[in-house]
């Protein structure tokens, strides 16, 4: 059973840093490109970043360049998203996704982890 399970969310203060994790199972993680999406309250899901199978190539949405860093550990089947200098607009649910190609639509979604940034 293919599964993506996110963790690491919570209530944080503006300016803090946070690292989200996504544990993958049920498929060969190292063979798949991966990504993160963000859904702010009342809004649609937007892409945050994508990362290639080996982790050497990453791309970011224009709105996330600079404060977000995507990475992966293929030996532990885990995807990460580091968010620095958190802002209230970072509040929302963060989803880990499996993708066929960089910038392609997700084929598998995790259940999401909630991040709330307090001023």
Word description of this protein:
This protein is mostly beta strands. It has no helices and eleven strands. The strands form two sheets. Strands 2, 4, 5, 6, 9, 10 and 11 form a seven-stranded mixed β-sheet that branches. A hairpin with a 6-residue loop joins strand 5 and strand 6 (58-60). The radius of gyration is 13 Å and the shape is globular. It starts with a strand and ends with a strand.
Quick structural summary:
By secondary structure, this protein is mainly beta. It contains no helices and eleven strands.
Mean pLDDT: 96
In the predicted model, the low-confidence regions spanning at least 5 consecutive residues are none
Number of strands: 11
What is the straight-line distance between the termini? 40 Å
Strand content: over 45%
Q: SSE string, helix = H, strand = E?
A: EEEEEEEEEEE
Shape: globular
Topology of this structure?
Blueprint: E1 3-7, E2 10-13, E3 18-25, E4 33-39, E5 45-51, E6 58-60, E7 68-73, E8 78-83, E9 92-99, E10 106-109, E11 113-118
Parallel strand pairs: 2-11
Antiparallel strand pairs: 1-3, 3-8, 4-5, 4-9, 5-6, 7-8, 9-10, 9-11
């Amino acid at each position: 059973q293919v599964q993506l399970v996110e963790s690491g969310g919570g209530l944080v203060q503006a300016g803090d840093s946070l690292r989200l994790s996504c544990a993958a199972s049920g498929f060969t993680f190292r063979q798949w490109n991966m990504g993160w999406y963000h859904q702010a309250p009342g809004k649609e899901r937007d892409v945050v970043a994508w990362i290639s199978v080996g982790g050497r190539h990453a791309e970011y949405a224009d709105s996330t360049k600079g404060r977000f860093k995507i990475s992966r550990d293929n030996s532990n089947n885990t995807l990460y998203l580091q968010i620095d200098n958190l802002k209230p607009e970072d509040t929302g649910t963060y989803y880990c996704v499996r993708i066929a190609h960089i910038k392609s639509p997700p084929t598998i979604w995790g259940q999401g982890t909630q991040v709330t940034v307090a001023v």
